[in-house]
TrEMBL record:
Source organism superkingdom: Bacteria
Region Disordered, residue ranges: 26-66
Species of origin: Microvirga ossetica
Swiss-Prot/TrEMBL keywords: Signal
Protein name: Invasion associated locus B family protein
Signal peptide: 1-29
Length: 240
């Protein structure tokens, strides 16, 4: 049981990183973590060339700058938000892309090494308490055929969760215990994923309740409008 638990934790982190890879300018932020000093010094020398280059693509430069100093999960969430708006622009050097959207859900694919990953992703519609500042949150269901993984439910919470704190996802008449690790979460019992997916496909919303490292009780409500179609599209993308 322990190896499976650790594998799911690592998978959630990998998928969070892949969201960054698939969002154009935000992808550069991840690759620059270990090379930021050289990245900053390089454009500083040819100052005349940098100025005219900024005119045709000011938006790209602005988006790339925002996630550079954020935490890993925060960067991933913010980058996915940027990509989710213009579907045609969500292509990155890592090979990931936003294929299409269904209702409140987007369909993404990414290539990491020899492995293809496909997932359906959405943002919460409501977040409580409303006056509490936190990073964007995301719910996604992924497929990784190279690892024989299907229907893996995971979340980017947008904040650091309390270790061993209460966490659950409620959908329809069912509730599922979540296990959290830093700013990520996934279903505690992998055997429940199939049932959870089926319930999500016929329900209108999913509510996630967690507790932050500071002890605050937080609630995120996700719309499931378009979830079924997005999930099926993601599944077909990774069927081959």
């Amino acid at each position: 049981m322990t190896p499976a638990f650790l594998q799911r934790g690592i998978a959630a982190g990998i998928l969070s990183a892949l969201i960054v890879i698939g969002t154009g300018p935000a992808a550069q932020a991840q690759s620059q973590r270990s090379t930021q000093p050289s990245t900053r010094s390089t454009p500083a020398k040819p100052a005349p060339a940098a100025k005219p280059a900024a005119k045709p693509a000011p938006t790209v430069r602005t988006n790339a700058a925002k996630p550079t100093g954020a935490a890993a999960a925060g960067v991933a969430a913010g980058a996915a938000a940027t990509a989710a708006r213009p579907a045609q622009a969500a292509t990155g050097p890592g090979g990931a892309s936003l294929l299409t959207s269904y209702g409140d859900w987007g369909v993404y694919t990414a290539q990491t090494g020899r492995s293809k990953i496909c997932y359906a992703l959405s943002q919460p519609k409501d977040r409580l308490p409303k006056n509490l500042t936190r990073d964007p949150a995301y719910l996604f269901v992924s497929f990784r055929p190279a690892e024989n993984v299907r229907n893996e439910v995971a979340l980017v919470l947008g904040f650091t969760a309390k270790e061993n704190g209460p966490a659950e996802a409620a959908v329809g008449n069912a509730s599922y215990a979540l296990v959290t690790k830093t700013a990520n979460a996934w279903l505690k019992n992998p055997a429940e994923e199939g049932q959870a997916i089926a319930t999500m496909a016929r329900s209108g919303s999913l509510t996630v309740k967690t507790q932050s490292a500071r002890g605050s009780s937080l609630t995120d409500r996700y719309s499931l409008n378009g979830f079924g179609k997005a999930l099926e599209h993601a599944r077909k993308e990774c069927a081959s």
